[in-house]
Fold this protein.
Amino acid sequence: MLDDLRILERVYTQNIDTLERLAGIPPEKLVEAHGSFGSSTCLKCGNQSSLEYLRGCLFSNKTDPGQANAKNKAGGVDES
């Protein structure tokens, strides 16, 4: 709403749940002070994954979500 009126300059948040994104705040105007669950990066291989991929790994009890193949980079879920 404030962005539609062109008066929103920036939104600072300490939340990590990405609710601001769901509310429609443009990503370029968000400052996520503590990071967020909007994306994840494997500390071993550096592959970046989407929230959906990470959530799938967590709920399927995968011990190392970073070991996924190229589907991981695209945000897909590795079925193995």
Q: What stands out?
A: Residues 6 and 31 are 18 Å apart (CA to CA).
